[in-house]
Every structure is written in structure tokens, then in C-alpha cells.
Amino acid sequence: MLNKPLISEPQEQQRQPLSFPPSLLNYLYVGHFLARWGARMWEFSVGLYMINVWPDSLALAAAYGVVESASTALVGPVVGRLVDKFTYIKVLRLWLLSQNFSFMIAGGTVVALLLYEDVKSENFIVFLSFILLINISGAVGGLSTLAGTILVEREWVVVISEGQHPGVLTKMNATIRRIDLVCKLFAPVVSGFIISFVSLTASALTLAIWNILSVCLQYWLLMSVYNGIPALSESSQKRVYRSLPTDSERSSLTDESRNSHYLGDNDLEPLDHGWMRKVIERISRISYFSAWKVYLEQDVVLPGIALALLYFTVLSFGTLMTAALVWQGIPAYIIGIARGISATIGILATFLYPVLESQLSTLRTGLWSIWSQWTCLVVCVASIWVPNKLGAAYLLMGGVALSRLGLWMFDLAVIQQMQDQVPESDRCVVGGVQNSLQSVLDLTTYVMGIIISNPRDFWKLIILSLLVVTLAAVLYSIHIYRVRKHLFHFEKLYPLVRIVFRST
Questions:
Q1: I need a surface site. Which of 136, 353, 415, 462 has the fewest CB within 10 A?
Q2: Which of helix, strand or coil describes residue 330?
Q3: For residue 432, which of 180, 152, 147 has the smallest C-alpha distance?
Q4: How far apart are CA 288 and CA 80, in angstroms?
Q5: pLDDT tens digit string along 105-132?
Q6: C-alpha to C-alpha distance for 361 and 377, rounded to whole angstroms
Q7: What is the spatial distance between Cα 142 and Cα 123, in angstroms, rounded to a whole number?
Q8: What pLDDT, in 10s, does the model give residues 320-350?
């Protein structure tokens, strides 16, 4: 069901009070903030840890990125299936325990590596074991973060907003995304401050202690939300009933088992002919493949693919673009400031999105957002032909920073469409596959960076990134045309043109 503009609703309905204490929403936001802060601290710091452990090579940092992205890409659909299968309480406990415990182990292992600097030369097997433990712990922490993201952003937000006025879902989505962007902006600043003015060891120790202390508070806050909003416990009970086999399924299983005992020689021939069909059916029942099947059957598959394609890009303040800017002579603090401006513009998008969504609808907000992002990235491509290296670099950073406004509004528009249009029984599965697909394309970016590794050839990656964004915008436009049978209201544009001509 598509969202309708809020301006057509009565003012009384928009001001309708919530059916639960508003403080519970603050508990949800604080719990989500604590979880995202720890994940963002680790995400920023792990590359610095790896470079410090092996200063002459980027191999360890790149290997960690590959392991984390590959694990999410491969196991993401299964995580979504498990989140859909288990009760909210079980998912909440597994998420918080595994995420905080994993980052605690990873931080403690980094501390051990930094304290015993000679372990690489004295006992290389122990050194590799430490590196392997950091990679595995980080990957498990990333998968746990994914489970928490699916639970909060794709499930709880929708369940809580049901029965409330339509603006609640939009506002909650924007607030959740704003929290994530604030953590993305300030967690690296705090980590960088500790690393610069204290030590790397103190940073890793702070990360481990943070996860030990915050897990209990996170659990109390989120359990308070669960116990205080009856809709969550009711939805959790529905999950339990949905997972139980129905009477028809029990009878069909009984019939299959009974018939398997009475197969004669004449029945073997048709059974032999249908072996391929049975193999396909069994494969389709595997969680990974069945999750992809559910995803591809959704009406919002094109918006989901369009959003995932935006992860196949170097036009962000990630590892590859940062390395290219440093090669061009841009100081690290300038890159840090530009990254902060980029995150600030992303936060601004979370305030602007609810306003545009109420005026244009979710579908059209997504259309305007992705094409505005594309327009800003054209500036990045134009920087290729700027002869001055510093001028080209500043133009590149400016285009990327401005594009964050369209990027995050498009992200919110697609997420809200999935929340509105994906059935409740498939919501977590679709969320897991979506994150898996995004990780696949993020991993592809690293692979392209290895193939085109010379900083002088970075312009090729810029053009390739714009082409992928163009493909994403075209796919979303096709979806809009398929749903609305048009892209723009040209009939509304005609009176405006007449007025302009009359005035001239």
C-alpha cells in the first residue's frame, strides 16, 4: 500500500497522541544509539589497528574488509531468516550478547597484539591466530549488528507505528537514520582523539570496556520498550504460531511417509523421472536460496536493487577515495573535515525527508532524491578534467558531500517502501537479503580497487561509479513508471510555462 501525502489528512489526525508512553520511543533511540556507537567505533578503528600491526602493507586491512563484507553477503539472508523465525526476546538476547561479546574479544585481542609487538617475529603462528581471531570476531560482530538492524529498523519500527497516525513511521525512520549518521560522524572523532592523544592500545581497551558496560543498559532499555508496547509482544506471539506446522502440513508429511513405505517396482519409474524436480524443491527449501526467492518475488525488488547498486561506488569517504585524496596531496585533517561535512549533510537529509515525503509521497521523494544524487556526482566526474590536482580534489570532495543529501533521502524512501509493501511474514527475510546484496556490491568495490590499484587511474573508478548510480536511477524510474504509469506531471507544468511566457 502506497503512502498518501499527509497534507490531505485532517490536522486532528496528525496530532493524535501515541497509544503508549512517548518515553518508550526515547528508550528505543538510546538503546539503538548505544549499539550503533560501539559498531561505528570498531568500524573506524579496525583499519588503523591493522595498519599499525603491519605498517608496510595494507594487506591486513584489506583482508579484514573482504572477510566482513563476504560474511555479510553470504550469511545475511540466513540471518534475516533466523530473525524472522525466532521470537523478539530471543533475537534481542542473541544480538546484544554476540555483538558486544565479539567486539570485546576483538578489542582485547588488539590490545594483546599491541602490547606484544614482537609476537610477529618471534611466533608467527600465534600472530596469525590473533589476526584470525580479530577477523572472525569482527565478522560475527558485523552479522550481529545486521540482526539488530533488521530487528529494530525493519520490524519493531513498523510494528510500533501500526495503528498510529501515518507520520509516526516516517518520523521514526528519520530518527533512526539520524542516530546512525550521528554515530558515524562522532564515533570516529572520539576514537581518533583517543588514538592521537593517548594511544592505540587505550583506544582498543576503551572499545572493549564500552561493550562490556553498555550491554546491560542496552538490554534494559530495549526490554522496557518490548514490555511497555503490547503490539510487540503480540507480534512476537504471532511469530511463534506462524512457525508451528499447520494441520494440512502435518497430514501431508504423514501421507508422504506412509506412501514411501508402499512404493512398488512400477512406481520407481515415475519417481526416477522426477528426481530433478525433487532436487530443485529441496534446494529451494534451503534457507539461503528460499530467502532469495522470497526477495525476488516482492513488488519492491527494483527499488531494493537500486539501493544496493549505490554501494558499488568509490564516491564516498571510504578507504579507496581517502587513499586517492592523500596521494593527491590533501592533508588528513582536511579529509576529516570533509567527511564531517558529508555526515552533517546526511543528518540534514533525515530532517528534510519527512517534509518532502509529506508533500510528494514516498515514491516521488525517492525519485527526486536519487536523481539529485546523480546530479551532484556529475560534478565529481567533471573534476577529472580539472588540470589543478588540488582543485580537482576539492571539487571531488564537494560533489560527494553534496550527494549525501539525495543518497540518504533515497535510502529512507526505499526502506519505508519495504516496510509498507513487504508482508509481515517476509519482512525480516527481505531485510537480510537486502543487506546481503549491499555487502556483495560493497565487496565488488574492493575487488575493483585491487584491479585498478594505481591512484593515477582513480578517474576510471569515478566514471564506473557514476555509471552504476545511473543504472540505479534508471531502475528506480522504471519502477515508478510501472506503478504510477508516468514519471512527471507534465500537465501541471504547462500552466506554469504559460505564466512565464505571459510575464515575459
A1: 136
A2: coil
A3: 147
A4: 10
A5: 988 888 888 888 777 777 888 888 888 9
A6: 25
A7: 29
A8: 787 778 778 777 677 777 877 888 898 899 8
